[in-house]
Amino acid sequence: MSEEKNLPQELDDDLVVLEDEDGNVVRFQFLELVTLGVTPYAVLMPLEDEEDEGVVIVEVVDLGQETEHYDAVTDEALCERIFEQFRKEFGDKYDFAD
Domain limits of the chain? Predict the structure, then answer.
């Protein structure tokens, strides 16, 4: 997922549907919200990931009026920092493969 530019459609509390850059609908399970500095990031698990690539991290942009926009995080170093924060905060809740 390089850039999810569409607004998420929330179907359940933990289910998010995004459209990828090719217009394909992709379903995710919302795992947690992690804040790094003052920026919130959503950690998502693809529900139909046959390649088992792990989680997807997106920046949560508040558009006001209870509307959010998700931007893909493409900087690998930033993704690593966000994921490490996720592990630190929620390590007792999830099993992580090392």
Answer: 9-90
